[in-house]
Amino acid sequence: MNNSLISIKNLVKYFPIKKGVFRSTVGWIKAVDKISFDIYNGETLGLVGESGCGKSTTALTILRLEEPTSGEIFFQGENISSINKKQMRKYRKDLQIIFQDPYSSLDPRMKIKNIIAEGLAAHNLLDSRTRVQKVGELLERVGIPPDYMDRFPHEFSGGQRQRIGIARALALNPKMIICDEAVSALDVSIRSQIINLFKELQSEFNLTYLFIAHDLSVIKYISDRVAVMYLGKIVEIAPKDIFFKNTLHPYAIALVSAVPVPNPDFKRKRILLPGDVPSPANPPKGCRFHPRCQKVMEICSQVEPELKKLDKDHYVSCHLY
Amino acid sequence: MNRIIRKLLNNTASLIGLLLLLVFILIAVFAPYLAPPLFPDPYQIPRMSWDVEPQPPGFPMSDDMRFVYESLGKPITRDKAIFGTAQGGYDIFYGLIWGTRTAFRIGIITVTLSMLIGVILGSLSAYFGGWLDELLMRITDIFLSIPFLVAAMVLTTILGRGLDKVMIALVAFGWMGYARVIRGSILSTKEEVYVMAAKALGVKDFRIIAFHLLPNTIFPVLVQASMNIGSMVVTAAALSFLGVGAPLGYADWGQMVSFARNWIIGSPGKAGEYWYAVFFPGIFIVLFVLSWNLVGDTLRDILDPRLRGEL
Amino acid sequence: MENKNRDKVLEVKNLKTYFFTEDGIVKAVDGVDFEVYQGETLGLVGESGCGKSVTAFSILKLLDYPGKTVEGQILFKEDDLLKKSEEQMRKIRGKEIAMIFQEPMTSLNPVFTIGFQIAESLKVHYKMSNLEARKKVIELLEKVGIPIPEQRVDEYPHQLSGGMRQRAMIAMALACDPVLLIADEPTTSLDVTIQAQILELMKTLLKQFNSSLIMITHDLGVIAEIADRIAVMYAGKIVEYTDTRSIFFSPLHPYTFGLLTSIPRLDMEMEKLESIPGVVPDPLHFPEGCKFHPRCGFATERCRKEEPSLLEIENGHIVRCWQVDRVREEAKKIAFTRRLAVVE
């Protein structure tokens, strides 16, 4: 694809498990295990999965906040997976992130003016007066009165803090923003405000989003394409409409069926997965989902399925297809 | 801010601590008026007589001493030792008043320097981790494994007698606690999401340490430091007591106590005859340490994370 | 309604629980009335700070200073819990009314085995011997779907996954066959697929034990699945109180209506999410009049000045709003399409 903003090839991130007096490595947590996908210019890719599936690690690794164990990350065609810290700084302006917890993501001892201007200061952009002006514009844009810029984070509610986090990310005019569970911690009535804000900003600033969430209803609303992760692997990727009309991977099907729907008359067949997600330190052989899968076959416990292209843009990693 | 002041004034203990500290500061500032010096070096304690034995409060200056001081050309405004004299006729009152300045100097300088060393080493160690952390922490462990007082004694013996040498020894063996504390809190703070956010913005490492990590971790260290000021003074006094501290006749509380060493028990049949030689220096040291501890407690209350939201 | 014939298990009348903080009085729960019938599930829904959890804690009298229940009645089997001594309450807690908490990791004691912790209430309330209690615990663990219960009974909380811990919590709550269960966001910290497991389990067990449940949650999807009736809370008060289908298909309070149109959902296509403007009001400075009026699209002069009281608008549909008729009209438009969206 030539309109890929980000292209990930065989990305792997293992965390060592250290034990004993000498902190020797006794194993690896395979948080992200050889995943490949593209994020197209201007789209929102929704990445969904349960806790521990590696979706946040994927985000942090793309931003090089975690060093990839192997694999390549291309940003606008340039490989940013092995460049050094200094070279990476230049790309930080283009790649931003918004975190889940609006409380811990803002330094409690900094005025929000300085929080938002921090990126500008780090890259020596604008002089101090224009910086303040820019901070004011950003605050205005995300829906916070600019004259609050001398306040501290604790003077704001969760939703407002998330807006401040968004302003901080926007300050550097990024091309892409990764939203790592950015609306999960917010109250219901605030969540839709923020989701709508994301949508507005996307068209206004021509942003590309990697939208990470565990809530499929949010993903369904905001994404153009959906990727489902399970135990460090991508099991299915498809454009949103195709995904929800024709979910293929047994895990994705179970996930969709498990989402609570605010409609007491909504009847559907719910697939209850047996047991728990296995530990990423010791994932099952073959297909990682096979011990919980209802449609498990002989081959599933032996051979790990590849992510296959089924239709136009519909990829699934399952032996059934 | 009002809330903090209200909180301070409502708490008796913190109020006492602050008042005591204020008194000591006033004593230090007004030392030249409270006890006008007779020697060109104000820290030289004037002697009231040549007596070896301590003399009780109210003891007047002997004539031959008066003659000596008059020849130095300074007006003699106080000719009675109101707290008595220590061994060798040294004026206890004078020694304590000017010793307050010494105490502040020892406390603040040693604590500031050791805190600085500790904070720098600890934050580098925690932030960069890896072999640097290993190296710095092993060095810290080595320093920690040496008994503080013994080490300080050996070092002062090597360097020679003198207050500056005592301070060097105190700093050299006093920074490890700070390094440990700051390392611990930076290790947890650097996992905070806002640090991650700063990295994602491309903020440089040293800026992250200075603008995010230290402001959020320094307060427990400050609390510890304020409490340590008192104990540093006690240690310095202990070194003086053991004879490796300040030079003879220098206004220093430890020295005043050490003067009392031979007279603590009193003479046969008259237990506690020389009580004043121990009591006055002792009470100064105790109150000084107490004031810093109370202030430290107060600081901790104020900086308590539960109250931080209201700061 | 059919409830009229059933036994009331719990009746909360004009409950007021305030927090006496340094900055002033926080009216966390300010005049709440509801009842729970035998075998039914009542959902308490609202956003953080609306007072739903404080209501639960007040029922069990688990609040410490600065929180205090200042007024009201909590009639449990026609006995006012607020008049009971701590000693009497201890006999009720765990035995008659049991609670399931949100965070299964922190609500289980890490230093005891789960078997020991579940057995504790059996030993206290039924004076069971160790052996008897152990047998009963294994039985309970099996009922809540924990595999190999004979082995799990001797494990510590950290050895269990989040879902398993929540099952253990449920086993603990059910140990003494309580008449009433109070679950405070029991599935919020769980993954979606695990949440589905737990919800199914709770539904089955409720039928089996014929217990009543007060389900506290902010998740409208969860509540739609499990509740028979729902009370929506806002700023310490109930704003709408009726059966589940009426809440979802013909909401009469603007807040409920706003919530329903602002959540993304799987059962229907939505062009744009509506949103409720503004933030939840600071409990120290509640607005005058209706507490929702600054965020309400239907607000009029009257709403700004006069606080509406809870009125039964339709049969069993209780609402605290001056603008019910306008909300009903507005909701009809959307509710219609919503019914159509129910396909599968």
Q: So how many helices of chain C?
A: 12
In CATH's first tier, which class of chain B applies? Mainly Alpha
The proportion of strand residues of chain B reads: under 5%
Oligomer: heterotrimer
Order of helices and strands of chain C: EEEHEEHEHHHHEHEHEEHHHEEH
Give the CA-CA distance, first to last residue of chain C: 29 Å
Largest interface: A-C, 45 and 51 residues
Rg of chain B = 23 Å
Distance between the termini of chain B: 7 Å
Topology of this protein?
The complex is a heterotrimer of chains A (321), B (311) and C (344).
Chain A: E1 4-19, E2 24-40, E3 44-48, H1 55-62, E4 70-75, E5 78-79, H2 85-92, E6 95-98, H3 112-122, H4 128-142, H5 158-170, E7 176-180, H6 188-205, E8 208-213, H7 216-222, E9 225-230, E10 233-239, H8 240-245, H9 250-258, E11 308-311, E12 314-316
Parallel strand pairs in A: 3-8, 3-9, 6-7, 7-8
Antiparallel strand pairs in A: 1-2, 1-4, 4-5, 9-10, 10-12, 11-12
Helix pairs in contact in A: 3-4, 3-5, 4-5
Chain B: H1 2-10, H2 12-29, H3 31-34, E1 59-60, H4 63-72, E2 80-81, H5 92-128, H6 130-145, H7 148-159, H8 163-172, H9 176-189, H10 193-200, H11 205-241, H12 253-259, E3 266-267, E4 270-271, H13 275-303, H14 305-308
Antiparallel strand pairs in B: 1-2, 3-4
Helix pairs in contact in B: 2-5, 2-13, 5-6, 5-8, 5-9, 5-11, 5-13, 6-9, 7-8, 9-11, 10-11, 11-12, 11-13, 12-13
Chain C: E1 8-21, E2 24-37, E3 41-45, H1 52-59, E4 67-76, E5 79-80, H2 86-92, E6 97-100, H3 114-126, H4 130-143, H5 149-152, H6 162-174, E7 180-184, H7 192-209, E8 212-217, H8 220-226, E9 229-234, E10 237-243, H9 244-249, H10 254-262, H11 301-305, E11 311-314, E12 317-319, H12 324-340
Parallel strand pairs in C: 3-8, 3-9, 6-7, 7-8
Antiparallel strand pairs in C: 1-2, 1-4, 4-5, 9-10, 10-12, 11-12
Helix pairs in contact in C: 3-4, 3-6, 4-6, 6-7
